[in-house]
Every structure is written in C-alpha cells, then in structure tokens.
UniProtKB/TrEMBL annotation:
<feature type="transmembrane region" description="Helical">
    <location>
        <begin position="237"/>
        <end position="262"/>
    </location>
</feature>
<feature type="signal peptide">
    <location>
        <begin position="1"/>
        <end position="26"/>
    </location>
</feature>
<feature type="domain" description="Thiol:disulfide interchange protein DsbD N-terminal">
    <location>
        <begin position="45"/>
        <end position="156"/>
    </location>
</feature>
<dbReference type="Pfam" id="PF13899">
    <property type="entry name" value="Thioredoxin_7"/>
</dbReference>
<keyword id="KW-0812">Transmembrane</keyword>
<dbReference type="InterPro" id="IPR036249">
    <property type="entry name" value="Thioredoxin-like_sf"/>
</dbReference>
<dbReference type="Pfam" id="PF11412">
    <property type="entry name" value="DsbD_N"/>
</dbReference>
<feature type="transmembrane region" description="Helical">
    <location>
        <begin position="315"/>
        <end position="341"/>
    </location>
</feature>
<keyword id="KW-0201">Cytochrome c-type biogenesis</keyword>
<feature type="transmembrane region" description="Helical">
    <location>
        <begin position="195"/>
        <end position="216"/>
    </location>
</feature>
<dbReference type="GO" id="GO:0016020">
    <property type="term" value="C:membrane"/>
</dbReference>
<keyword id="KW-0472">Membrane</keyword>
<feature type="transmembrane region" description="Helical">
    <location>
        <begin position="386"/>
        <end position="406"/>
    </location>
</feature>
<keyword id="KW-1133">Transmembrane helix</keyword>
<dbReference type="Pfam" id="PF02683">
    <property type="entry name" value="DsbD_TM"/>
</dbReference>
<dbReference type="GO" id="GO:0017004">
    <property type="term" value="P:cytochrome complex assembly"/>
</dbReference>
<dbReference type="InterPro" id="IPR028250">
    <property type="entry name" value="DsbDN"/>
</dbReference>
Amino acid sequence: MKNMNLMKYKLVLLSFLCLLASPLLAQKIVPAKWSWTLEPAKPSVGQEAEIVFQVKIDKGWYLYSSDFDKDLGPVVTTVNIKNPIGFELVGGLKAINPHSKFDKEIWNGTYTYFTGQGEFRQKIKINSENWKIEGNYDSQACSNESGLCVPIKGPFVIASANAASDLPSDEAKKKIPESVSSATEAEQAAPQESLWQFFWIAMGAGLLALLTPCVYPLIPMTVSFFTKQKGGKGLAFLYGSFIVLIYVFFGTILAFFAGASFANFLSTHWIPNLLFFIIFIFFGISFLGAFEIVLPSGMVNSVDAKSDKGGIIGVFFMAFTLVLVSFSCTGPLAGSILIAASQGAFVKPIVGMLGFSLAFAIPFTLFAVFPGFMQKLPKSGNWMNEVKVVLGFLEIALAFKFLSVADQVYHWHLLDREIFLAIWIAIFSALTLYLFGKISLPHDGPSGKLSIPRTLVATAVLAFVVYLVPGMFGAPLKGLSGWLPPLSTQDFKGNSGEVSIKPGSTGNVKYADFLKLPLGLTGFFDYQEAKAYANQVGKPLFIDFTGHGCVNCRKMEEYVWSDPKVLKRLQEEYVIVALYCDDKTELPKDQWYVSTVDGQEKKTLGDQNLDFQITRFNSNAQPHYVLLDPRKEGAPMVKPVAFDANVDHFVDFLDQGVRQYKLNK
C-alpha cells in the first residue's frame, strides 16, 4: 500500500510537470542524437574494426539499450546493416556499460538503459579496399519528467574513400534529426532512490531477524559479556562493526559477479528463477518448523574456539560465531535480500547487506553502551517462533513470484493470474488461521489467549485475503499490479468493478490478430478503417498514439483509462483507434512509401503510424491522444493531450471533444 501511495504521488507530480510542458506537445521532440565513426578510421584488408555509435541524450531523458529481453516490453535498440559490401559482421551489437533496473510495476523484469551518453559497438572485418557500411538504427527515448516516449530512428552510412561518392548529399543529411546534450540528473537520481528504498527494506529484514529464536536470546548473553570487562563499550562497538563488515563482505562478493547482463539473466531466465523458487520454498518450510538449516558443527566450533583469543581478533571471531550460529534463522532472510539484490544495480547487494547488518548489529552495541535499556525488552517466549512462522508463510508466498516471472517470460501458462491468486489466497488464509490459533505447528508452545498484537496482525492478514478474492473474478487489484501476473493471462473476468457496456460490433478488425486494446475495450488499429466506422456510427474518433514499449502509455491505461468515468466515455461516446508507433510488423511491399518528412522508406506498421503522427499532428512522442471529427480532415477538435495522471482532466478532455463534435453538426 505504501508503494501504491508513492506511485500516486509520483503520478500527480508527473501530471503537473506535463501541464508545464504542454507547449511542447504540438511539436516534434528529438531528445537523442546518434552519431557514428569507424575505429580505426582507415582499416586495411583483413583487419577487424568497430563501428562506434555514440548517442547524446537530453537531460531528463533515457534511451533503452540493446541487451535485454526483447519480449519484456520496452523497445530494444537495434542496428540493422544492409547487405555488406566489402566487409562482414563479427558478432552482434554490444552496449557499453548501460544502467540496469528491475521494474516490477509495468514490465515485471530487468531492462537496461543509458542516460546522458550512450554507446554501442559492432565489430566488422574488412574484406576489400572498397567497402560501404549502410543501415539504420531504431531506438526509443523516454522521460519520467514529461511522461513521453519518442522513437529515435534513422539511417547511417560509412564508406571507404573509393566509395565516398555514394554517401548521402548534404541535403539528405539535413533530414537526419538533430538534438541535444548533457547528462540527466533526474534519471541518475532514480536508481539512487530505488537503492535507498531497498536499504530500508533490508534493514526491516534485519530487525525481523533479531526477533527470531536463534538470535533474540543471544542479545542479553552477549551484552552481559561486554559489560563485565574493562573497555567493554569499545569492544561492543567493534563487535557490531565486525558484524556489519562480515555481511557487507558477502554482499560485495555477489556485487562483483552480478553485473548488468548477469542481473538480466537472473531476472528473466527460467533456470535462476526456478532455482530461487525452490530456495524460497526450502527456506519457508524450514521456518515453519519442518527442519533446521544449520552449518556444519565443525566449522562453527572452529570459529568459536578462535573467539577465546581475546583482543580485536577475538571480538572478530565472536561476531563471526554469531553470524554462523544464527544462520538457521538469519540465512533465509539474508538469502532473500541477496537474491532480490542480485537482480538490480551493481551496488544493490552491498546496500542490502549494509541495511540488514546495521539493523542486526546496532542492538548488540546499543545495549552494551546503555545496559539499562535491556530491562525494557520483552522476555523470550513462544512469540519468537510465531514471528518465524509468519516469515515462513511470507517466504513461500514470495517463492511463487519467481516462478511467475519464468512462466511469463517463457509463456508456459502454468501460473496464470487466477492460479497465482488462488495460491496466495490459500497461503494467507492458512496464515490467518495460524494467527487466530486455529492451527498449530511443530515448534509452537502451549496455546493460550491471543495477544493484542497477534490479533491485530491476524486481522490485517484476513483483510488482505478479502482484498485478493475479487481478483479471482477479474478485479484489477491495482495495489499489487507489480506482483501479480498480467490481467490478460486470466481466463475468467467478471465485472471487475468497471462499467459493463456492450460496444457495437466492429466486425473483422485489421491487425486485431496480434494487437489488443486494454480493459476489454473494442476498437481499431488502422486509421482509415476506424474513420470509416466512426462515420458509419456517427461518433468522434479517439486516436491513441501508443507503443508496446511506452511505459507511460501503460500507466495511463492502468490509472486513468480504468477509471469508470473515463472507461464509460471511451466505450459509449468514441470510436477508438490505437496506432502503435513502435510495432515491427512489416507490411506488404505494395503498401510501402517514402516519407516526405525524412525521405526514408516506411515499411513497417509502426513506422507508418509514426510518420502519420508527425505529418498530420507535428508530434512524435507517445502517449499522444487526439480527438478528431471523422467527417472533416481538419485540425483536432480540441488540443491533444499527452501523459496526464489526473482523471478529471482526462474526463474534461473527452467531454470537450463530444461537445465540439455535436457543435460541428
């Protein structure tokens, strides 16, 4: 719920920024500029060279890279080289040090991107003195400030001196988009914010570890050791520092191995996700009391013996002993943090272990410095095992998230949305029964009256189960949108709280075999077809310039279009046409044409839709919403809008269009 509220605040802020940027909506935006060179510039026959593509990206924008799963959603940067003349390709396109980010809200996976400056390299081998490298690049830049996404594409040519006459003329070069500069502070801040949030999550896990039966009883014993000797406070501080150092060491080791490409592998490939699923199930069952996860006793005893040496070395081994003997309770929690961290930025495992170990170590040091506080701690008891059992249920529930990721990426359809929800409802229902004392587990003590905290937690879990149930019938459950499989994977969808209206039949819609509208809406994917139908039924046109990789298009659909007020108007009062500007479907050759804007041949559905947006509305960013009177070829009925998370603004926009359409009659 906290993440949901944070998301709403961000959307409101983005909406406000979009209003400030409204003068830009009616003009083309070119937030990234490509340039290219060959290294070395004059390679000899038989020599390998590299085509180096440099991309300068405007402040506040980012450009998707080329090295993540193309089925994830965002537009993966591609470079297509036409028939090689005098050279051959060596390997594929390589992105140089992009950022990496795991997005659980929209894409449910890890993507890579550049801010400020991007670089791609393609190796080639020269086979002739006369060589010519010709092709085109295709990429997408997006902004979290304006909420817009812009396709960035164009041709490039590099040739040897003998082939220089074939290079584009100066006039043709002018048609290649110009742009930009400088690094983006906003996008650089985003990963830092994510790491900061992860730090607090990891610290929370560390605090939970303190409450487990493997750790909590050790606090008074350890504090008593330090308070009974000279200089004990200093040694206690050193003891806590060593605990932090040990955990951060393991985080650093993982960070060394978990680079951007490895993180992408971990977050999308079925093998690590299936492995994580098994590990989390294993951890969860252990927490429920089926068995204990312990390290070899010989290893623990060996380390413990070295702690008797005294001095700094002795304190270090005392800290190491604590880490080892508490492993049966802390291992699953620390392991969960490391698994989550391995799918993010390079420093994320270090940040995670720092947060976890600080929460774990501070109480030992704090109580040694202020021993009077010890008397205020609750006594050890059965409540510690209850904490452990709750964590076990949570571990098992989270395990299915990893299985879901693999299921979605590889389209196994083993864990569609209703199956995932059914499993979660069963798990949290069992947790509810446990907390209310209706079932008991192996390590539970004698049952008595429920404590107030346990009753409150049980009630909260029950409320969560009640919240999940409507999802089985198609409710969107927006608060869990980043955790659940997409609604499109659900077989049964009831009313789901949305307006239930039967739109008129649109017959056999062009491109409907591979393109779909969200939220059960019906409409078109071809402008001329939509226009003809709108004239037939006497309704205005709602043009949605969108993209498969447009994250803010998805946010508009999820947070604005889904509102009953908006959905009702779209269903009843407009004919919708969604024009995907990044779709790669190649059209029949007789439909190709050369654009008057950039002189390039438009072969794909996406290229033609984007060209239509540019030539007709002088805009090249998505989302872009236009209301047209299909009876006229004039300007939009009202000023087009882009990303705006304010539902009332969008309702007013749609209402203005209807009023203007009626006035035009």
